[in-house]
């Protein structure tokens, strides 16, 4: 099983494009470094396969899958990882938002009625 | 102190506050207005001596109640009582709950609807949901608690400190019992007679019951493998 040069080139171009877009977004401050890492890993994987396609060819032979299938599988897993990381980030944001909101409400209360400490 | 979470309860809350003043005059009251769209805050402001905490938007029942516990912790209260704003909870029985806490019979006392027949008749879907939930929790933590979803409860400072740090979002009462159990705190219940609602509407609508049930079941399952800490009790 071989891989077409044109496919390799397309993969390399897309990966480099992704790499550049992600780096530019980080440079402009639109994307935080910690959230860029997984995107960079995705792009690095594309570059790796573009430079050493035999990695995937061997893997495809070993698993008896088509080369394209393996690529889709890899892409699917990266997307899954990205989505999961988004869910984690959103959950953390919700948690912090809740704590901030409670804090704002408690502070507003303290400002309005500064006195008063009870025991029951 | 008494913590009352309120979401659009302008109709019922003045009467609840008046009855509380009669039933437990020594207790301070704080109402947590969970982003109500009606005149709840104004109704509370008219009641003398009642503290009001206004959440800027609707955070949900769990977060609203937790705000009350955080307040109680910061203000140094030793006992916190939780009570609904809709008038269903018999506030004149509050002193019974408080007595149990003062006597250190448990860290949290639940005012329960199911211990004896008290004439409380919730709708079918709520009854089924609550019964499943109650059985699940009783099976997990033991102790023979029959009404795990009651929001009519009294607790000591250890529980206040725990809830200030960990409090669930939906159907929080049930899951909070698991949190207490995991924290090594004791819960017990006494029976009380529930009243019909004085106004407003229930926050739990039947179509959501199955969703909440799945969510709470997941939360409780995960809780079994979590560690819970207390907020510092000294201020």
SSE order and pairing:
The complex is a heterodimer of chains A (120) and B (235).
Chain A: H1 5-27, H2 33-51, H3 54-63, H4 67-112
Chain B: E1 2-6, H1 13-23, E2 29-34, H2 40-46, E3 50-55, H3 61-74, E4 79-82, H4 94-102, E5 108-112, H5 124-141, E6 153-156, H6 157-165, H7 172-182, E7 187-191, H8 209-223
Parallel strand pairs in B: 1-2, 1-4, 2-3, 5-7
Antiparallel strand pairs in B: 4-6, 5-6
Structure in a nutshell:
Chain A has 120 residues and is mainly α. Chain A has four helices and no strands. In chain A, helix 1 packs antiparallel against helix 2 (33-51), helix 2 (33-51) runs antiparallel to helix 4 and helix 3 packs across helix 4.
Q: What portion of the residues of chain A fall into strands of 2 or more residues?
A: under 5%
Low-confidence segments of chain A = none
Q: Please report the total strand number of chain A as a whole number.
A: 0
Largest sheet of chain A: none
Spatial gap, N to C terminus of chain B: 17 Å
Number of helices of chain B: 8
Q: What are its keywords?
A:
heterodimer; A: 120 residues; mainly alpha; 4 helices; 82% helix; 0% strand; elongated; B: 235 residues; alpha/beta; seven-stranded mixed sheet; 7 strands
What does this 3D model show about the protein?
The complex is a heterodimer of chains A (120) and B (235). Chain A contains 4 helices and no strands. Chain A is mainly alpha-helical. Chain A is elongated. In chain A, 9% of the residues are buried. The model of chain A has no long low-confidence stretch (mean pLDDT 89). Chain B is 40% helix and 15% strand. Chain B is built from 8 helices and 7 strands; from the N terminus they run βαβαβαβαβαβααβα. Chain B is globular and about 45 Å long. Chain B has a 7-stranded mixed beta sheet, sandwiched between helices. In chain B, α1 links the parallel β1 and β2. Chain B is α/β, with parallel strands linked by helices and 235 residues long. In chain B, α3 packs across α6, α5 packs parallel to α7 and α5 runs parallel beside α8. At the A-B interface, α4 of A face β3 and α3 of B.
